[in-house]
Amino acid sequence: MALGLLGNKIGMTQIFDESGNIIPVTIVKVGPCIVTQVKTIDKDGYDSIQIGYGNVASKALTQPELGHLQKSNIQPLKYLKEFRTKNDDEFEIGQVLNVDSFSVGQLVNVKGKTIGKGFSGLQKRHNFARGPMTHGSKNHRAPGSIGMGTTPGRVLPGKKMAGQLGNKITTIQKLKVIQVNPEENILVIKGSIPGKPGNLLSIVPSE
Question: How many domains does the chain have?
């Protein structure tokens, strides 16, 4: 089943392999996710599976969101996400997807929102070089020139300047699954994963 799942980041730790080498890993609580909708090319114009994750009280959802789930007799779920698939006949509404759809040694792509670092300058945000720190220099961490004068007489779009750093969706590709714990719905993945502990993640098998 090559369908992605949703989960939450728990945190990082390290484990030892058979040779005694230290492996930095991230612990992820994955699923259980419920299939909330099966879209087909005949009815919707494309094939995909919509899954839901995270039980919440019904008052936490809007009426359209609640009605969409009640139509399929599914409990209120906080997050809904679609995954494109060509094997939609393998899934049915209400089906529960667990962490056992992943296997040890499998490569996965993990998508999540990075840690927000607020307003950051050019050196931290874009790795700019700083100016000289001695001999009366007034340019230490200043941006310097940001464009030409009369022509074009404006700052060109896309100019690298100071601004918000982080707090954006990013994907880390080809991370290796080290351990799978179906009893606790825990996935142990090698390396670091975007965001703080508790961050919502999308885990998809790497192609």
Answer: 2
Domain co-membership, 54 together with 96: yes
Containing structural domain, residue 159:
118-165
Nearest to 110 by CA among 201, 42, 207, 16: 201
- CATH code, domain carrying 95: 2.40.30.10
Give 12's contacts (C-beta < 8 A, 6+ positions apart): 24, 25, 26, 27, 192
Q: Is a pLDDT exceeding 50 seen at residue 48?
A: yes
- Name the nearest CA neighbour of 98 among 165, 142, 44, 53: 53
DSSP alpha helices (H): ranges in the chain?
63-70, 122-126
8 A C-beta contact, residue 28 and residue 189: yes
Assess whether pLDDT exceeds 80 at residue 88: no
Residues 140-153 pLDDT 10s:
999 999 999 999 99
